[in-house]
Write a sequence for this structure.
């Protein structure tokens, strides 16, 4: 009750407010070094935050510029040049080393993973895909699916199924999700996990009935049911 009265006085009585303010002012006068130290620390913290953002923005712009030729090589299917550079222009691996904390460095991991997958260097592909992350509707799911492909090639069907599921569950859409579900179902079939394979096919049948994968999903599910 006493606490409520005190709070009421603080809200309604100007004299009480004045006393509180004078108390704070007195504390500042008695602790000038502490006040200056706190203010300096805050200035350093805020300045450091905005300074870091400015620095990273500049680094990313430079990385994007450096990566331009590597992307050109990638699009021309000159994969070794894209990966390692040509002596004058950086490749994706050097972009990752020099600008790994930037958005461009992050994207370079995706390109590197894709190249290593095409070169059948599956552990390296997985390594770079693991270092890639995106909030994009399509690209992150695609990276998960490609990781699944790399594990499938190594006959690690459990890991493959895991990443195909992650691809299918990442922001589902009718264009690509059915493909990821078909891949997941195949991985589960390789694991002799009939129930999960049928569940993946059934998801396509129920939720993606207008996709090109529908007929195969029905056919493969029927085959599993007839064999069980």
């Amino acid at each position: 009750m006493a606490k409520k009265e005190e709070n009421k006085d603080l809200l309604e009585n100007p004299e009480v407010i004045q006393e509180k303010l004078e108390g704070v002012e007195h504390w500042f006068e008695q602790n000038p070094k502490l006040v200056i130290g706190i203010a300096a620390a805050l200035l350093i913290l805020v300045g450091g935050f905005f300074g870091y953002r400015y620095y990273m923005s500049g680094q990313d712009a430079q990385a994007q510029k450096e990566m331009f030729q590597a992307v050109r090589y990638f699009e021309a299917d000159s994969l070794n040049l894209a990966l390692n550079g040509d002596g004058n222009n950086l490749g994706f691996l050097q972009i990752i080393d020099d600008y790994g904390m930037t958005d461009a460095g992050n994207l370079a991991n995706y390109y590197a993973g894709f190249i290593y997958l095409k070169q059948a260097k599956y552990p390296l592909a997985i390594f770079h895909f693991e270092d890639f992350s995106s909030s994009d509707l399509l690209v992150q799911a695609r990276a998960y699916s490609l990781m699944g492909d790399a594990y499938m090639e190594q006959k690690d069907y459990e890991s493959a199924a895991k990443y195909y599921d992650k691809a299918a569950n990442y922001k589902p859409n009718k264009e690509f999700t059915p493909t990821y579900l078909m891949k997941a179902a195949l991985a589960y079939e390789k694991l002799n996990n009939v129930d999960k394979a049928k569940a993946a096919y059934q998801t396509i049948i129920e939720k993606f009935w207008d996709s090109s994968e529908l007929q195969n999903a029905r056919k493969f599910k029927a085959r599993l049911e007839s064999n069980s």
